[in-house]
Amino acid sequence: MLSKFIQKKEKTECFTLNEPTDEIIEASNKHVGAHLSIQGGIDLIFEKLKGIKAYAAGFFLKSQRTFNAKPYTSETIRAFRNANTHEKLLPHGSYLINLAQPDKEKADRSYNLFLDELVRCDQLGIPLCNIHPGSNVGKLPIEAACMLISDNINKAHKVTQSVVVVIENMAGQGNTVGSKFKELKLIIDGVENKDRIGVCLDTCHLFGAGYDITTKEKFKKVMEDFDRTVGLEYLKGVHLNDSKEPLGSKRDRHECIGKGLIGLEAFSYIMNSSIFNEIPMILETPDPDKYAAEIKLLYSLIESK
C-alpha cells in the first residue's frame, strides 16, 4: 500500500492507495479509459488503448469540426471491426450538433450530422454514441427545447439499427440544455424507444451545475437524486474529470484527477460503488500524456475487500 498526498487548491487530501493488480482490476468491474485521438486511423484506437493500460475509450468518429466528413470506406470499417478487442467504447458526437435548434435550416443540418454519427456507430458495431443534448438558442420554454431533442432522437432511431443515444449532463453554461437532472428526464420521457436512450454523467459538469460530489456521502446523495429523477437504469457512461472552477460556477473547465476542486474522494466513491460497474468511464482531463498515470491512480483507489 502507498500513502499519497494530493494537493488541491483549497485543501490537502491523504489517501491510502493499493497497487492495482490485474486481479483487482478485473474483480472491480470498472472500465476506466480515456478520450483518444483517431489520428492515423480510427482502427488504431485499440492499440492506443493498450498503450495506456485502459479498459475503455472515448473518441470522435471523424473530425468534429465539420458538417461534411467523407463516409467510411469498406476498408476502414473492416479494419476497425478486425481490430476491435471489445473494450467498452463511448464515442463522442460532434460539438456542432444542436438538437434543440428551432431554426429549420440549421436544425436540418444539425440533425443530418447527428444521424451520420449514429450511422457510423452502426457501421463500426459500436453500441453507444454520446452527445451533448443541445443549446436553447431560440429561448424556448425548457419543456419545448427538450421535446425538440426527443423528437430528433426518435426520428434518428427510426432509420438506424441499434445504437443507444447517450445524452450528457452539462455544466449549465449559456443556454445549454441538460445541466439539471429534470431536464435529462424530460428528454428521456419524450423518447419512444427507452432501450435506445441513456445518460453519461460528467463529474466536472455535475460540479459546475451545482451538484456537490466532493465527499462520498454527498456523491451518494447526488446519485440517489439521479435515481429518483432519471433512473439508474439509464446510466450508460461517465466522463471522469476534476474541475478548475468552483461548485455551481456553470463553467466547464476540466482538471486532472485529484488536482482540482472536486478532489480524490469523489473518484474513490466511483471506483468503489457498484453503480458504476460495467460501463465505460472516460478521462477527458487536460494532459493526455498523464492518462496512463491517471488510470493507474483511479484503479489504486479501489479499497481492499
Molecular structure report:
This protein is α/β, with parallel strands linked by helices and 305 residues long. The chain has a single domain, classed as Divalent-metal-dependent TIM barrel enzymes (TIM Barrel, Alpha-Beta Barrel). The chain is 36% helix and 17% strand. It contains ten helices and twelve strands. It has helices spanning 22-28, 45-51, 74-83, 104-124, 142-157, 181-190, 203-208, 216-229, 264-272, 291-300, and strands at residues 2-7, 12-17, 31-35, 56-58, 88-89, 128-131, 164-168, 197-202, 235-240, 242-243, 254-255, 280-283. The strands form three sheets. It has an eight-stranded parallel sheet. A two-stranded antiparallel ribbon has the order 1-2. The longest helix has 21 residues, at 104-124. The protein is globular and about 55 Å long. 46% of the residues are buried. Residues 1-12 have low confidence and may be disordered.
Properties at a glance:
Apurinic-apyrimidinic endonuclease 1; TIM Barrel; hydrolase; alpha/beta; 8-stranded parallel sheet; globular; 12 strands; disordered N terminus; two-stranded antiparallel sheet; 305 residues; DNA repair; 36% helix
CATH topology: TIM Barrel
Rg on CA atoms, Å:
19 Å
State the end-to-end CA separation. 14 Å
What percentage of amino acids are in beta strands?
A: 15-25%
- Strand order across the biggest sheet? 5-4-3-12-9-8-7-6
How many domains make up the coordinates?
A: 1
Q: Largest sheet, if any? A: 8 strands, parallel
Q: Total strand count, please?
A: 12
Uncertain regions: pLDDT < 50 for 5+ in a row?
1-12
**The CATH homology group name:** Divalent-metal-dependent TIM barrel enzymes
Order of helices and strands: EEHEHEHEHEHEHEHHEEEHEH
Structural class: alpha/beta
Question: Average pLDDT value?
Answer: 95
Query: Helical element count?
Result: 10
- Provide the CATH top-level class: Alpha Beta
Q: What is the CATH architecture term?
A: Alpha-Beta Barrel
Helix coverage percent of residues? 25-40%
> What general form does the structure show?
globular
Protein name: Apurinic-apyrimidinic endonuclease 1
GO cellular component, one term: nucleus
Keywords: DNA damage, DNA repair, Endonuclease, Hydrolase, Lyase, Metal-binding, Nuclease, Zinc
Cofactor: Zn(2+)
